[in-house]
Amino acid sequence: MLYKNYFEQLRKAIPLLMEAQNVPALSISVTNKSEVVFSEGFGFTDPSHNFEVNSNTRFSLQSISKTYTAFGFMLTVDKGKVSLDETLKKYIPSFNVRSRDNIDYSNKITFRHLLKHRSGLAHEAPVGNNFSFGTFEEHIKSINDTCLKFKPDEDYSYSNLGIDLIAHALEKIYDMPFEEFMEQYVFAPLDMKLSTYKQEIFLCDIKSAVGHGKKTLVKNPIPMLGAGGMYSCTEDMVKFIDCFLNDGVYKGKKVINENTLKLMYEEYPASENWQYNLGLDVGLFKGKTILNHNGGGYGFYCSQDILPDMGLGAASLTNSVMHPNIQHSIIRNMWSDFITLADEGLCDCDDISDKYKKYIGVYQANYIDDNFKEAIIPRNGELYLGNQKLQYHSTDLFFTQNNDIVEFASDNCVRINYIEYQKVM
After folding, report:
1. Torsion over CA of 55, 60, 66 and 67, rounded to 10 degrees?
2. Distance CA 87, CA 163 (A)
3. Which residues contact 377 (CB under 8 A, 6 or more apart)?
């Protein structure tokens, strides 16, 4: 199998990273355009430990929902039902919004503006936002009480409201609830059987992941439906990714025309300066184009990457916001390693040397009123302290790329910059 050693090392590394960062659960799936090459779940859905997480466990996708909502809209463009440069007001006549100069720009805002976050709309609405609840209908209605931050297409400002209005416009175009539209036109053709925008399905799913902040959070419905209301699992998400990697085709069936699909990420050319296209953040990573969206909130951090140049993609989901986005760093480190391997003409990494395997684990330093954990993990045939590769100096002595000193006093004890850590896992 492609990257066999690499994924064996990743399988060992992830639980160690989770323990060091106190992440309750993580799910990850990786596809290479034609098949899923890695798909695993780690940890538990909640503190009861009744349900282990796997790659079919539902998580909240938060803002990754925007990519799927945008895809649903582009399907509608593909069917000739709507145009990107038509105005929102044509489909939602009741839409009105105030402006700083007291000029009515409501009839100037197009769907392209909304998808690119260039409409001038605020990020939050008075009803149904990240700090208060409300129904989707109440949320949409309250947008009329907001004021534009700038004239349409004058600037960029990330906005939940713009994507929620896209979802509401789809309801008007198809005369059905947005949740039903996505199920019928997006999830069914892609065989995404566990994906939904229906809040009640997630809330009633006792095996779905529960979000964590400083404490375990209660499941709540998300009023920003199009912008952050999708629930899915990584096994489903890589089916969506496969559709991108195969130019709109899934399992031999055309879901969307290639040219329409590419409008989502070719609005601006990929560069080192990442730019938001139509529902996707697009940029270059080590010379390779990445189509990305991340999400965070309600106790969840999540990431989705698509690499059309390499025919690869991945989704990774966690049920905690009390960590430094390890789901994102795991994926980006993987791309970095794969690019390095490809540049060297290799399709896999070496195994970890037997003399170093004993050092792999989680180490804890005890402070006066707290403790601190570090993970030493296998990655790409080398040892890493978190994201820093350990460079061998002499017996039991290593340095990181940042010149930190790492010295193993025994198999169960390491000194990092002369602070002593004991192995706990």
Report:
1. 0
2. 14
3. 9, 12, 13, 16, 17, 360, 383, 384, 386
317 backbone φψ class: left, alpha, beta (φ>0; ψ -120 to 50): beta
CA distance 177 to 171: 5
Residue 196 to residue 175: CA distance in whole angstroms: 19
- How is residue 380 annotated by DSSP? T
The C-alpha R_g of the chain, in whole angstroms, comes to 23
DSSP letters along 82-121, please?
--TTSBHHHH-TT---B-TTS---GGG-BHHHHHTT-S--
For residue 404, the surrounding DSSP H or E stretch is none
Percent of the chain scored above 90 by pLDDT?
91
pLDDT of residue 128: 81
What three-state secondary structure class fits 60? strand
The pTM is what? 0.97
Average pLDDT over residues 198-202: 96
Amino acid found at 7 = F
Q: How far apart are CA 376 and CA 222, in angstroms?
A: 37
Q: Are 372 and 422 in contact (CB under 8 A)?
A: no
Q: Mind listing the pLDDT tens digit for each residue in 97-126?
A: 999 999 999 999 999 999 999 999 999 988
The predicted-structure confidence for 51-77, as pLDDT tens digits, reads as follows 999 999 999 999 999 999 999 999 999
Give tens-digit pLDDT for 331-343.
999 999 999 999 9
CB 62 within 8 A of CB 235: no
According to DSSP, the residues that pair with 282 across neighbouring strands are 275, 291
Give the C-alpha separation, 351 to 293, whole Å. Answer: 32
* Confidence at 300, pLDDT banded by 50, 70, 90: very high
